[in-house]
User: What shape does this take?
Amino acid sequence: MKALWPASTAIAFVLLLAAGASRAEVPFDNVRQFTVELWPDRPPGVATDLPENDRPSSEDTRRITDVGRPTMTVYRASESGKPSPAVLVCPGGGYRILAYDKEGTEIAQWLNSIGITAAVLKYRVPDNRDGALQDAQRAMGLLRHRASAWNLDPNRIGVIGFSAGGHLSARLSTAYGERTYSNVDEADAKPCRPDFTLLVYPAYLHKKDRPHELTDEIVVTGKTPPALLVQTQDDRPYVDSSIAYYLALKKAGVPAELHLYASGGHGFGLRPSKFVVSRWPTLAETWLRANEILGVGR
Assistant: This one.
């Protein structure tokens, strides 16, 4: 797969790492892309000590697992002078692996193309849902804490998630009232509530015995962020997750859209296909503009 950003960016990033600037204090105007470690020391709670495992698969998807040092890689939107909106990107993978390119870096490239800064979250896996939520809350706080330095609009920072990453995004969007870990620094004093939420074929949100009800851990209120949901009807294990989340938002009076397509399955990211659902990025851009997250015109 071709690199998404030019070699000069990678060289600049390496130089910054050599200078010890790999954490959240990286100056935003120096590079188009940089990675920050979420935690200054060992993450709270459980974290694997195994070496990180990064491998391709037969489906042309980069799969990362055994993540014990969670990070956030920031991909800068094109220069505009004005602070840009930002989106925290949560790849899926069943909380076992991260589909890091198909539901991570490729999503960042699309967001950049419409003027949004993307932050791809490498959260703790495998089998660490509590750690993943801690990582997501920490990442959202860091984005707001560094908004001025990174030229972000702190009032237009949202989240997008796919499959298990959609579940994580829904948890972040509903469990923002209190951090699930003890505060580490000033970043944890910043709100971790996303300003908007995009869920693409989210998983694990509904009760098995009452499929149009959310699980007890997902509690929607009138303060839950507005949301756009993209789902296919033939995604049989998870279609009810999108429906349940939408119905809960509707009941709470939260602005929401559910776009339910007949076919397309699960795990397609934004890769083209014969199915109409593959046009969802255009629909999402329209929704972002209609909700004044993106300005009118480009």
